Known about the structure:
Elements: H1 8-22, E1 34-35, H2 46-63, E2 65-67, H3 70-78, E3 82-84, E4 89-91, H4 94-101, E5 108-110, E6 119-121, E7 125-130, E8 136-139, E9 143-146, H5 149-161, E10 167-168, H6 180-194, E11 198-201, H7 206-219, H8 224-229, E12 234-237, E13 244-245, H9 247-258, E14 263-265, E15 270-271, H10 279-300, E16 306-309, E17 313-315, E18 322-323, H11 327-342, E19 347-350, H12 360-375, E20 380-385, E21 387-388, E22 393-395, H13 396-412, H14 420-423, H15 425-431, H16 441-444, H17 462-467, H18 473-487, H19 495-510
Helix pairs in contact: 2-10, 4-10, 5-6, 6-7, 6-19, 7-9, 7-19, 9-10, 10-11, 11-12, 12-13, 13-18
Amino acid sequence: MSRLRPGRSASRRHNREQSAAAVSSLNQLPWQQLAYLDKPTEPIDAEGVLKIHDAAMRVLEDIGIVFLHEDAREILKKAGCSVDETTMNVRFDRDMVMELTAKAPSSFTMTPRNPDRALEIGNGKCAFGMVASPPNTMDLERGRRVGNRADFRDMLRLSQIFNCIHFNGGYPVEPIDIHASVRHLDAIYDLLTMTDKIIHAYSLGPERVEDAMEMVRIAAGLSHAEFDASPRMFTNINSSSPLKHDWPMLDGAMRLARRRQPVIIAPFTLAGAMAPVTIVGSVVQQTAECLAAVALLQLISPGTPVVMGAFTSNVDMKSGSPAFGTPEYMRAMQLSGQMARFYNLPWRGSNANASNHPDGQAVWESQNSLVGVLSGHANVVFHAAGWVEGGLSASFEKVVMDCEMLQQWIYYNRPVDLSEDELAVEAIREVGPNGHFFGCQHTQDRYRTAFYSPFLSDWRNYESWLEAGAQTAHERAHRLYKKLLTEYVAPPMEDSIREELEAFVARRKEEGGAKTDF
Length: 518
């Protein structure tokens, strides 16, 4: 039986209204996912898709993927794969791969502890996630610094406040001041109490994954059977490109699959480094690495939700450093979207940039990334707000700057209204050839809501901007994020559930938490 109390929805509704009032100074859209209006951009035709598919199948059949997990190899061997225990390499039959891939759902819904924050993954929808996993954070006032729990918690406050942030795909910044053995316990506790949105569990050892699932279950007031019955959280695993899945990632993915929780499989295929220097070749490798893991998870639990991850970009061939938001990244994302649709799977992209500061480069590379993933119809976008320095830092100001862009993309995808009022023939008749539309009734009825209204852009003329302090976008974002933190209101949680979470964390800490090497 569920332990949800009858008054809980009313309490949740009251707090939602209270939260909205608390951040009324932020001119943001209501909570909603992006719903694609335009057709996806498809750089290649159906024959081209088949060529990439055939090449990926040849990689799986003739070259194989290394699986560094003995249980995974045993499962694949029993299913008929060719397994070399010496090299731990697994080769797949293409018909088996396609049969297993077809068992995965084309879309699914994840429901966090607040059902109002449920996310549809697939079916023409897109969900944006906060930046995840950087070891450093930065802002205009205090500069770049090592990640800590105080900054981690402030990032969570922003992720809760912004309606265009739909989930937390990890830790917005790594709280390195908490020992690694118990860090996941404190971090997940903060995620579950300070936000009410979907969260992610790192596949970094059995204890972290099992603890995360149990804490999500407790926070939602669910029985074990209720938790297992539908998606409540997810993990993201990265293959160790080229052509390898490592033990911790596989182990975590397999644990979630056994409880039918979603898994995103995202090869980190940087063209010229961990993947072929050609973008198409990198997409081939990305596809092969992803489908190998999809096949494994469907063998464990047919119908387990999986997401095809895409992170193919290129490196700077002068330095070897990753480059993001490049023309190659944009095309790779559009190609990835075509391949995901071919396999009837949802897919994940990222909003990434390589700039060391939230400057013009960061903005144009991030916007390029968003153009790539959104024109390719990604269903999940990781690192949608806050990423800088190639993922090594999370910037508070960049969170605000990115959220302005995300909100504009959601607005851009609104359905086009073709009603008689919108066609405005009578307004055109009223104004005629010698007037203007500023004063006509049609404009007067709509001027407050006619156009998108930004919360960060400054549209004043130069003189007015100068007189007001001549603040740059970076400075305005700094001011706004600091103001928003003072307006944060925590989402409600029943005292009994909070106490149960606290008791679980305390017990697991006494038991030592997760094993570490130090």
